[in-house]
Amino acid sequence: MDRANGGRILRTIGFLLAAATAARAEPLTPLQAAQARDRIRRDLYIPDPLPALDAQVRRQFRPAPGVVGEAVTYATQFGTRVPAILYRPDPLPAGRLPALVIVNGHGGDKYSWYAFYSGILFARAGALVLTYDVTGEGERNIDGRSNTRAHDAVQGDEELGRRMNGFMLTDIMQGISYLLSRPETDPARVGVCAFSMGSLLAAEEGAIDDRAHVMALAGGGNLTVGPGHWDTGHLICQGWAYQSLAFLGDRPATLFALQADRGPMLIWNGLGDTVVDIPHTGPDFFRDMRDRTVARHGSARNVFEYGFTPVGSHRPYFLIRPAALWLERQLHFPNWTEEGVRTMPETHVSAWAKANGVAIDAASATELREGGERAVGANIPGYPRDELSVFSKAEWPAAKAPYLLETWVAAARVAERAERHAN
Q1: Helix (H) or strand (E) holding 267
Q2: φ and ψ at 76, to 5 degrees?
Q3: b/e for 49-60, b at 16 or more Cβ within 10 A?
Q4: Which of 28, 202, 268, 408 is the most buried (most CB within 10 A)?
């Protein structure tokens, strides 16, 4: 039996066993939790130790009043690098500051409206905010383009898919490492806000890495025990990897129990979100998933909270008022108060985008989707794309090789062949 077919058969058996045992799963022991984390990291090829950051600040700029932006780069897998923008408040509040990593969905990058908006909004709140390009997008795209979903076009097998997912998890971990390397950061107040594909990545990452105190997931989190949305779509970056976690049994309960060891989590969705199948995995689904997670964790402490926007589809809900209030309670932004967030004005995203020349792709710009979001905050300016680039147009051709998806794919295939030869 070849490795791929054997893996599929074992996963199918795992799904069946998981479905049969989910309701009676016992709490994880510390040893079981440690073994699960170790296996996830190994199965997804996450380097241990993580690569040295070799971080570089290339320039500073002012994207909005009260905010300084820094164009930075740092290392990730196989010597490749991540281009990112760090937003920080100006002036800096006294003491150590909370910090956030923004994790994009498919096609998203540091140029996406919600990445830029989050950077300015939360920097004004008094936090450091890191936004970066997902592999294959922005300055990690061979043509420097956004919204390409280039990584989905990579041809490969299950192992390459697990490696791709682990690569994306490594990017999140390196983002956390970068924030922790900054002297302004309070290591007890680091958070991750993730959207869509990013919600699956964050669900996995926070289960194996306890350095983020809080996680807010939007447009996802509806993980299934057996086959479901996250198994069947986008195999190269999420499906094969999530399938490989069948050894956990009740995958969502176990992942979220491991997350509860790390700290609090909020999951928020729109009841009309057909992109990730929320109409079939709505309130009753989440209630049951939470009950199973409490049983798997052995207590309700830090087990995820969840909520829904009644009329809304696929959106980065970590920018709406309930999520901003939750983040304020967890991270205690220096320039915000709960009452201030409760009375903060809201921005209608489609109207804001039109008035400020902000591009949102047509499928996402509708009122049901991102265009209809009411994001907290006001007076967020639009942005020139070049201002959010780490490299100038003149610098890019000579600089781009270590940043490209293609560079990582070539290295991953060499590693894949070497492992098969060794076995």
Answers
A1: strand 265-270
A2: -140, -150
A3: ebbebebeeeee
A4: 202
What element of type H or E holds 84? strand 81-89
The residue behind tokens 């791709």 is: 164
Q: Nearest 5 degrees, angle CA 305-CA 216-CA 364?
A: 115
Per-residue pLDDT tens over the stretch 107-140 = 999 999 999 999 999 999 999 999 999 999 999 9
Backbone angle region of 170, left / alpha / beta, with phi > 0 → left and psi within -120 to 50 → alpha? alpha
Residue written as tokens 């290295």?
411
Q: Is 305 helix (H, G, I), strand (E, B) or coil?
A: strand
Residues 245-258 have a mean pLDDT of 98
Stated pTM of the model: 0.94
Alpha-carbon Rg for the chain, nearest whole angstrom, is 20
Greater confidence (24 vs 322) lies with 322
User: Tens digit of pLDDT for each residue in 199-230?
Assistant: 999 999 999 999 999 999 999 999 999 999 99
Work out the pLDDT band at 24, boundaries 50, 70, 90.
low
Can you tell me whether residue 78 is helix, strand or coil? helix
List Cβ neighbours of 262 (8 Å cut-off, separation of 6 or more).
Answer: 206, 207, 209, 210, 212, 213, 215, 302
Cα–Cα distance measured from residue 64 to residue 381, given in angstroms and rounded to the nearest whole number: 7
CATH of segment(s) 25-422: 3.40.50.1820
Per DSSP bridges, beta strands 305-309 and 214-218 are: unpaired
